DNA sequence: ATATAATGTAATATTAAATATTACAGTTTA
DNA sequence: TAAACTGTAATATTTAATATTACATTATAT
């Protein structure tokens, strides 16, 4: 799995804490520690699905307009990483009953696993993530 | 995630269908379509945990001695891939509340996600996998 | 009008991870 | 004692993830 999923979570959380103004891909990339072009790619997916809005030009950037509880991690997972749990099986031997069928069997099992994972991820909205971030912040002793 | 998990499932299923004799890493690798050395590496983990036995020398190989229902996919996952769900977060900006805490928040969430996944994987023992392989075999029209 | 600051996206380069290969020591059998 | 295996480390290759460059497009401010 690539880290588009976690980058999307990071970006949305960042935007959710700045809902009064637009944030640039540069600012987000600095927070997340990755290249701004990657941020733009991930955010372009989120925009396509209506989670954020963007504006070009001076003073432009990205902004999160929905309610914090309206977006959960399963939504984000599906947009950025659906199918990522599926193992990449090499082509196996068709003359062996195991080789001939294992790929499809595993596909079915992992499809179920992903759905099951979804039930867990639905429990976390951006609001919950922000709460957890704040908790971590408060419990750190600097 | 690498494919050690699925290779382990493939190997155990293969062995489970040959419980009267030993199978060589060459035979398994031919069924799975990967290099025999990889099979030996994965099986060496499974051996360490008591799922299979091995024997060196002529006529040697690997053999699965437990009951087919004694081993489930969660057992195998833990041995081969524990922690694989965890995203590899780049070091993010400590001066930003999101950057400073997101890594730990995600770690916590993904730890829960893995446990949750475990509950699903426990439903599949090698017996169930064999049943699915047979079903696939029977439903294919050659 | 025009310079500037932003997004959008494709193309390419680089880095990191997964996998394959080689090599060889140790074991068992014939 | 030769042959057929496992066990495992070291290295090479391939593939996937990420970064970088480049540039078109859009909006703002002067």
UniProtKB/TrEMBL annotation, chains A, B:
Record GO cellular component, one term: cytosol
InterPro entries associated with the record: Tscrpt_reg_Rrf2, WH-like_DNA-bd_sf, WH_DNA-bd_sf
GO molecular function: DNA-binding transcription factor activity
Pfam families the UniProt entry points to: Rrf2 (PF02082)
Gene3D superfamilies according to UniProt: Winged helix-like DNA-binding domain superfamily/Winged helix DNA-binding domain
Signal peptide from the UniProt entry: none
Matches recorded under PROSITE patterns: HTH_RRF2_2
Residue intervals passing through the bilayer: none
Name under which the protein is recorded: Rrf2 family transcriptional regulator
């Amino acid at each position: 799995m690539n880290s588009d999923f976690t980058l999307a979570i990071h970006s949305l959380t960042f935007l959710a804490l700045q809902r009064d103004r637009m944030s640039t891909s540069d600012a987000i990339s600095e927070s997340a520690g990755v290249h701004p072009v990657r941020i733009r790619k991930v955010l372009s997916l989120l925009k396509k699905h209506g989670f954020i809005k963007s504006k070009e030009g001076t003073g432009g950037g990205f902004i999160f307009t929905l309610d914090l509880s309206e977006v959960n991690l399963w939504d984000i997972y599906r947009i950025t990483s659906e199918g990522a749990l599926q193992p990449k099986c090499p082509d196996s031997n068709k003359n062996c009953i195991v080789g001939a069928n294992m790929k499809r069997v595993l596909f079915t099992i992992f499809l179920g696993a992903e759905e099951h994972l979804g039930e867990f991820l639905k429990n976390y909205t951006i609001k919950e993530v922000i709460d957890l971030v704040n908790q971590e912040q408060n419990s750190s002793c600097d």
